[in-house]
Every structure is written in structure tokens, then in C-alpha cells.
Amino acid sequence: MRLLIVTQAVASEDSVLGFFVRWIEEFAKHCERIEIICLKEGKHRLPANVCVYSLGKEKGVSRMTYLLNFYRYIWRLRRDYDAVFVHMNPEYTVLGGPLWRFFGKRTALWYTHKSVNLKLRIAAVFADIIGQLGGLVSIFDAEDAGCGFKLFTLRQLVDRIHHHLDGSGSILCHRGLQLAGIEL
Questions:
Q1: Which burial class, exposed, middle or buried, applies to 77 when counting CB atoms under 10 A from its CB (0-12, 13-18, 19+)?
Q2: Which domains does the chain have, with CATH numbers?
């Protein structure tokens, strides 16, 4: 499977989001290729099958440039990924969702937050699967969303992601996987 990951930061030294580099390393073990679009890129050492494209926050570019870069990357890379994994940013699912749906790309949104806002409700329309950490209160239920998506814990997401994104069982479909130190 070739995967596009969209996230805020790819930076080992980031005090809040540095853990996600480990997630990327783990995904890379199970994917042929990973393309990553991030808001900002910092220091990291990722496997050879991972390529990072920054929207430019670390260079101080404008929000309009972020947006133009985002669309430029998802268009230019559209033949290089089979599915999309959006980490903690429903706005990327809102912005990219219509194109990904048009391209036939299955989309997963990982979102762990207790608030539900309009942006998340719209993102739910375009996400084929939404995951969150187990043990937390569900952000909202399928009936409340009114769009028929399913909300999964991390373990359920790993168990089911191949059905929703790949279908071949080639990505993250085995037990015992650890992501960011979380035993599944």
C-alpha cells in the first residue's frame, strides 16, 4: 500500500507532536511508500520509503501559501498514494476530502479531542473511517453526525483499516503493533 499522511508536524524534537515520528516509522514498516504533507518540518530520520513535503510554516510563509502548497501536493502526488491518513486535523479532511473522493482515495481521520465543531462534522462526511484513542469519551456518535461514519478506538482502527483503506490486509492488520509506545 502507498499511503499519504497529512499531519501538523514531522519533527522529532517537537515537544507536543514529536511522538508522531514513531508512528510514521511504524507505518513505514507496513507500506510500500509513504508521502507526508505536514504544516511544518523539523529534524527527523525517517526510512527511505518516506518522503516529507512541508507546507512551509518553518519558513514563515503565509496561510495562503499553505493552502496553495496543500493543493499542489495532493494534486502532484495523486498517483503516488492509494489511501490517506489525516492526523488530528479535520480541516485537512475538509479541504482535501472532495478531491480524495473524486480520485477514489479512501480516507481515515485520526482525531482525539472532546469538542465537536462544524469543521469536524464536515470532515466526517469525507472520512471513510475515524479513529481515536480507546478509553476516551467518543467525540460524537454516528447518529449525531448524521453521515454514517464509524468511530473507532486505535486497536479497532488498526484491526479494520485494511478493510476500509486497502482491502488486502497489507497494512497494520496484525496484533502486537505498538504506535507511540501504545500496546495494541
A1: middle
A2: 2-183 (3.40.50.2000)
CA pseudo-torsion sign 19, 120, 122, 8: negative
Angstrom distance (rounded) from CA 83 to CA 92: 14
pLDDT digits (tens, 9 = 90+) for 112-151: 766 677 888 888 888 888 776 543 323 334 333 333 344 4
Give dist(CA 10, CA 144) in Å, integer. 33
Please state, in angstroms and rounded to a whole number, the distance separating the CA atoms of residues 170 and 184. Answer: 17
What is the residue type of 135?
A: G
Helix (H, G, I), strand (E, B) or coil at 128: coil
Query: How many angstroms separate the CA atoms of 50 and 171, rounded?
Result: 15
Q: Are residues 125 and 96 in contact, defined by beta-carbon separation less than 8 angstroms?
A: no
